[in-house]
Amino acid sequence: MIGNRITYRTADGVRVPGTWRHAFIRNGDYFLTDLFIYADGLIDCWGLVTLEEFAEKLRCGWVATELPDGARVSAHDLAAWRFSEPRTWLTPELLLAEVRDTIDQLNGRPDSTDRCLAAVDAFLADRTEENRTAARAAYLGIPETQRHYALGDMDRKDWPLQVLVTGPGEHLDGAPGEPVTQEEYDDAIAYFEERARWIAQRPARVPADGPATPFAPAIHLYQSHFRTVPDDPGTTALRNDFPAPVPADGVTYPSVAHAYWALSTTDPDARAAIREANTVYAARDIAAGASRRDGWEQARTAVMTALLRAKYTRHPALARILLDTHDATLVYDDSDSGFWGDNGGRGRNWTGRLLELVRSELRAEQAGIALPEPAATEG
Question: What are the residue boundaries of the NADAR domain, all occurrences included (predicted)?
């Protein structure tokens, strides 16, 4: 199960989401490690393998589900010990089934539990033995270690589900004990009918101030080289090197990038040369050769925020382009900086994040929300 263990790997510049769980690798001795599972179906068990290759790793015991008493085991750089009366609930088949479910969950597809509950709904809507048989097969398709979570009921676990798919007078999958009674079956039917009513009446669980994730698809702001200003620049106008004059420290600069590099130094000659630079790259090179302003690294995000505010306040047409991105995540490329750019998932994307902030401020202004001004410091 995914839980809160979310990670990713980068493949061809694309983030592939994943999760991880603990596992034992048998390479002579046994080693406690992390098993990484990714949405594209690759699994890292001391090397990336496909799902089919992972199944073979389980069959041969490389990924170990049998833990023999007295075997040596190590957690790298942490501890070493021997197994003493070890107990494990997993088999190769169970672990493989859980991994398959995890891949479905990472892709937003129905997993074995979802498929079971859908089959139960079909049975409740049309209570034929054929539909019950399908629901029972779907229930048995849930990894045994996960079945008691299927209903999300920590009091009754999966007991009503077992009874429903078995039917009165029958044993579930040949299990020992008394067969299901009519009273137990009627109770299970009542449980699912009440559950259906509760689900139908349950209000949509949307946070009071809006959703946690954007509804618009992400927008990638690729690097561009502007020789002339296009009539319809589209989202390229959101680039910091787009020709859009902004004022800074009493001087107007050709673009946000020019102003940023000028403010990074206190050298007046360098700042004048940056202002006149024909390209952003020339402006950057001039700034790189000048002395850096004290405290620049700590101040640069505030400087960029102010420059972006100036750009979109001064140029309403560009503000409209920014607002038209709605709530999309803005992914900004910057080959020179892993701080300002996303750069294939390896950077911090601060430019994209600040653009989203300024977009929100513009939206607040449109909505007539008066934002508080920073208080003046005394002394």
Answer: 244-363
